[in-house]
Amino acid sequence: MVMNMNKRFRAISLIMAVTIAVTGCGGTKVETEQTETKVASEQDMIQQSMFGRGEDFGALLVSQGITLPVSTTKVFVNQAGYISNREKKVMFFGEQLGSTFRVINQADKKVVYTGRIGKRSLDENSGCYLSEGDFSEVTDTGTYYIETDIVGQSYPFGITPDGYENMFVGMLKNISDVQLVEDAQGICDISFGMHAIMYAMQCNGSLFEEAYKQFGEEEKDKQLVTQLLYFAGWLKGHQGTDGSLYGDYEATAAFCGIMAMSRDMFGRYEASVSKEYKEAADKAWAWLSKQECDTDVRKDARFYAAVQLFRVQYDEEYKTIVETFLKEKNEDYSAQRFVFYGVIAYVSAGENTDRDLCTHIMKDLVDRNEDTGNAAKNDAFFGTGKRSVYDNLYNMLLLCFINDITPSKEYTEIIENTIQYMGGLNENGVCYIDESGAWKELSETADRNLEWNGILLFGMSDMLKNLIDIEKDW
User: Fold this and answer.
1) Last residue of a domain, one of 134, 160, 186
2) Are residues 167 and 155 in the same domain?
C-alpha cells in the first residue's frame, strides 16, 4: 500500500447514480399528441425489453449511461472506496444468499475475483441475517461492483493505493462544510469541534503539513489555521457584554475553554491574538463565577472551562476546581463530552498535573476503550459497535485518544472499520461520506456539525499515521 503523503494525490472517479426528472408543460393539442406518442413508444420499448424482447431493462439503463445497482439493500460495500493492499470486506443481507459472489470490473464487465459468502449470523439489533465476504485479493486500481446470483449487486466502489490520503485532504478542504447554528447548543458544537481539530493537529502535525502541499494556491484560505481563526472570531462575535453567550452556562463554559485553548495554540505567534483570546476567556470565566453551580451538568461544564484555563495559565483556583472534580468523579471519564474533552486537556497539560491522578484516569479510559473494542468485535457490522453516525464518531474519539498515547494495531483497525462504516459498510448500506470526505445530504447526517468533522479528521489522521508506521515496519 502506498501511504506516502508526498506523492501526487489522485482523485478517485466513482460513477454516480443519475436521477432523471421529467417535467411537463402546456402546449398545443398536436404537440401534446406527439409527446404522448413518443412517451408511449418509449414505454413500449422498455416493456419489450422487460419481457425478453430486445436487451434487458438493466442493459437499457446502462446504454443510456445510467448505472444503478440491482439491489440497494442487500449487498453492502464501502462506497467511499477501498485501499489496494488493505483488507476488503462486503456484507450480505438476508437468509437466501447463495454460496459465492463475484467482483466485477465496471469498465469491461469482466469477473476479476470469485469469493465465498461466509456463514450467516443473526444481527440482534436489526433482527436480520448477515453474511460476510472477503475480496482482499483484488488490488488493482479501478472501479468495481459486487454481484451475486440471488441478491443482486452492490453500488460501485473504487480501489486505489491512496484513497485514504485523498479522503484526508478532502476532509481538510471540507472542514467548514457545516452550518454554524446561532444558539447555545451551536456554540458547544463549534467549540468541541475546534477542540477535536486542534488536538488532531497537535498529535499529527507533520501529516497535516504534508497534506497542505496538495492545496492549490487558490485554496490557501481552506487551511485549518485560517478556518480555526474564523471560527474563533465567529464565537467571539456572540459573546455578550456581560461575558456570557446567550446567558447560557454550558455555552459560556465551552466558549471560555476553547478561547483558552486557541490562545495557547495561536497566541504564542501573535501577541494581539493572545491578548484578545485571554480577555474573552477571562470575561466568560468571570460570568461563570457569578452563577450558581449546583447541578452535575454545570459542574461538568465548569470543569471544562477551568481545565483549559489551568492548562494555559497555571493558577491554584483552577487547579483546585479541576483536581477536586476529577477525584470526586473517580470513574467513567468518557461518558459526558464536557468531562471527556476536559480530561483530554488535563492529561496533556504537562508537569503541573497530578501524575497519580493521570494514571487513574488513563486506567479508566483504557478500560472503557476495551469495552468499545469488544463491542466492535461482537457486532455483526463494522464500526465501533454503535448503530448511529454520532455514537460511532464519539466512540472513535476515545479510540483515537488512547491509540495516540499507546498505538495499537487493533485500535487502528477499529478506526479504519469506522471510516468504512461511514462509507457504506453499515446496517443501512448507506454511504454517509464520499471519497472526498464530504458528508452526503441525508436524514442521518442532517444534524452534523463541526464536532463531527473534527472527530472524523482526528480519526483519519490518527489512522493514517499508524498505517504509515506499520508500512515502515514491513
Assistant:
1) 160
2) no
User: Which residues make Cβ contacts (< 8 Å) with residue 149, sequence separation at least 6?
Assistant: 98, 100
The single-letter DSSP state of residue 65 is T
CB atoms within 10 A of CB 280: 22
Residue 284: per-residue pLDDT: 98
CATH number at residue 137: 2.60.40.10
Question: How many residues can be counted in the chain?
Answer: 474
Burial 85-115 (b: 16+ CB within 10 A, else e): ebebbbbbbbeebeeebbbbbbeeeeebbeb
Give yes or no for a contact between 423 and 80, defined as CB atoms under 8 angstroms apart: yes
Give pLDDT, residue 67: 53
Q: Do both 218 and 156 map to the same domain?
A: no
Please identify, among 120, 138, 160, the residue that sits at the C-terminal boundary of a domain. Answer: 160
Is 198 in a helix, a strand, or coil? helix
Q: How many domains does the chain have?
A: 2
Give the Cα-Cα-Cα angle 240, 320, 404 (nearest 5 degrees): 85
Q: What is the block-wise mean pLDDT of the chain (474 residues), using blocks of 10 residues?
A: 36 28 33 40 39 42 52 80 94 83 95 93 77 95 92 92 94 89 96 96 90 84 88 96 97 98 90 93 98 96 97 90 94 92 91 90 89 78 80 91 86 91 89 93 92 95 84 52
Its pTM stands at: 0.81
Question: Do 234 and 334 share a domain, yes or no?
Answer: yes
The pLDDT, as a whole number, for residue 374 is 80
Q: Please give the residue range of the domain that contains residue 88.
A: 75-160
Which residues are 75's β-sheet partners? Answer: 92
The three-state secondary structure class of 129 is: strand
State the CATH number of the domain containing residue 421. 1.50.10.10
In sequence order, which residues have a C-beta less than 8 Å from that of residue 401 and are 6 or more positions away? Answer: 344, 365
Domain membership flag for residue 177: yes
Instruction: Give the H or E element holding residue 225.
Output: helix 224-236
Cα separation of 447 and 444, whole Å? 7
| Cα separation, 426 vs 445, whole angstroms | 14
CA dihedral 395, 312, 285, 293 (to 10 degrees): 50
Residue 300 placed within a domain: yes
Contact 234, 245 (CB under 8 A): no
pLDDT number for residue 472? 56
The DSSP line for 372-404 is HHHHHHHSSSSSSS-SSHHHHHHHHHHHHHHHH
Residue with cell 494495531: 409
pLDDT of residue 268: 83
- Tell me whether residue 12 is in a domain: no
Q: What is the pLDDT of residue 60?
A: 52
